[in-house]
Amino acid sequence: MLLLHRSDNASYRDEPYSAKAEYYRGQNLLAASLHPMTHKRNPAFSRFLKQHDLASLMRPYPKDFDDKAILTRQDLYRRLCEIIWNPARLGFTIPETRRIPGPAHRARTHYGVDIPQLMAAGLLKAGDTLIAIHRGTEHQAIVLDDGRIKLAGGEPFTSLSSAAAYARRTKSANGWDFWQLQTRRERRPLKELRDELIRGER
Asked: Which of 86, 127, 163, 174 could form a disulfide with 157 if both were Cys (CB 3.0 to 4.6 A apart)?
């Protein structure tokens, strides 16, 4: 999950994470962000986090780096890729197209639908509440303006599945099956909204 020089990485060997975090502070900013001191008196870095709403993803882990941290860091890397290779920033114009799934096959089905597409079709909007119940515990999330999902605990995710995995405390999960849209009258599974978009009803 880090970019380090081979010799530096080898020198850390099997030391505990808390000791490695001190070494990471002297590395590139991506690695150094794991140390809390990197986030203090660093105005340029603070502006970058605020500008791209990354504070909750690019946060320090001074002592432990557990499964939750791995999932959060995974979403950070995905978000950084979206920023770096944003077509608009690179001067490209992407035509609006609707991706339709191909014929059924044994491989895992890819529907080609995401939250921003549901929002563009009017099936979801910023501020909508998503609900899920897992093992008797109810989880809530809010749809953000940019299509990300923010859990009640403050975690923003770029995909339904990563948000579901975080809530379930598992490595993976099917977000379409997990989340439901809470309306005044009912709860609608998001897979129903996805299928509605695919069928061209919106």
From this structure: 163
Which residues constitute the domain of residue 128?
Answer: 115-198
Q: What pLDDT band is residue 38 in, cutting at 50, 70 and 90?
A: very high
The answer as to whether 91 is a domain residue is no
The answer to whether residues 20 and 12 touch, using CB atoms and an 8 Å cutoff, is yes
Q: Side chain identity at 157, as an amino acid letter?
A: F
Classify residue 80 as exposed, middle or buried by CB count within 10 Å of its CB (0-12, 13-18, 19+): middle
Q: How far is CA 119 from CA 40, 92, 135, in A?
A: 37, 22, 29
Given 62, 84, 106, the domain boundary residue is 84
Tokens, residue 31 = 């690695």
Q: Using one digit for the tens of pLDDT, what is the confidence trace for 166-182? A: 888 888 889 999 999 99
CA angle 78, 79, 80 (to 5 degrees): 90
Count of domains for the chain: 2
pTM of the model: 0.47
- Is 100 inside a domain boundary? no
